[in-house]
Amino acid sequence: MCAKLLSRLTTVRACLLQGNVGCSYLRRRPFTSDIKGRQKVRPLDGVKVLDLTRVLAGPFATMILGDLGAEVIKVERPGPGDDTRAWGPPFVGEESAYFLSVNRNKKSIAVNLKDPEGAKLVTELATRCDILVENYLPGKLDEMGLGYKQLSQVAPQIIYCSISVWISKKTVMAQDSKSSSVSFHSHMKLLSAMREFPELTKQWGVMNLLRFKSLFFFFFFFFQVACLTHIASNYLNAGKEARRWGTAHESIVPYQGFRTKDGYLIVGSGNNQQFFSVCKVLNLNNLAEIPKYKTNNLRVQHRKELLKLLSDRFLEESTDEWLRRFEDTGVPCGPINTIQQVFSDPQVAHNGLILEMDHPTSGRIAVAGPAVRFSSFQFGKPTSPPVIGQHTVEVLRDTLGYSEDVINALLFYIAYQFSC
Question: What's the pTM value of the predicted model, to 2 decimals?
Answer without folding.
Answer: 0.67
